[in-house]
Amino acid sequence: MMPPELGRMALGWAAFLVLGAGVLLLTLTPGTPEFVVTLFTLFLGLFLGLIVVAGVVWTRRRTKREDGQQ
């Protein structure tokens, strides 16, 4: 089970990566190495956010299922 603090921290990092990379992408020239690294960072942040949201949904469903069986 994932502690809520860990989920909040990971979601904060994901938001930081997505917002930071999104703003930087608006200022960089496509095709440059900086653009590619920033695009990779954006996808990494989105992936991290997806993992956190999936973990929260999975944990809540598991908890509801366990509470219903008792």
Automatic annotation (TrEMBL):
Origin superkingdom: Bacteria
Species of the source: Kribbella albertanoniae
UniProt keyword annotations, A-Z: Membrane, Transmembrane, Transmembrane helix
Name of this protein: Uncharacterized protein
Transmembrane segments: 35-58
InterPro entries assigned: MFS_trans_sf
